[in-house]
Structures are given as structure tokens and as C-alpha cells.
Prior knowledge:
This is Glutathione synthase. This protein is mainly β. It contains no helices and eight strands.
Amino acid sequence: MADMTFRKEDFIKDGERYKVEVDQGIGKGVDLIVQREDENGEYEVIQAEILRSTDERVFVAWSEPFNGKVVSDEYKKL
Length: 78
């Protein structure tokens, strides 16, 4: 799976937090890693909440909107 990027503008307010929908096919049986872009354009791993709806939509939730990406570590084999 390729990285899935998103922008601050993609987030919608959901109660006390913000969420952004990521690709529907993402996260089927794999671990997802959320990375936030810092002011230097570098990415840091954060522990964002991953929400899955009953219709299999996947969201990243956080306290504020941010530029970031979702990557999968499915390629890692132990």
C-alpha cells in the first residue's frame, strides 16, 4: 500500500475532536501508522485514534487538524 496523505483542510469537526476520512481500502487486517508533518516538513509518528465505521470507512481522529499521512507496516514480516 502506498502512503495516503491528507491536509489540515480535509478534517471535519466531530464533537471535541477532528477527523479525516482515509481511503476505504486502507487498514484491512494491517497495522496503520499515522505521521504528522512538523514545521520543518519532516514527519513524526503520533498515536492518533483510528476509527472504523460499520460501513468500513476509516478515519484518523485528533484534537486539532494537521498535515500528515497514514502508512502501513504490512510489509514488515516477523
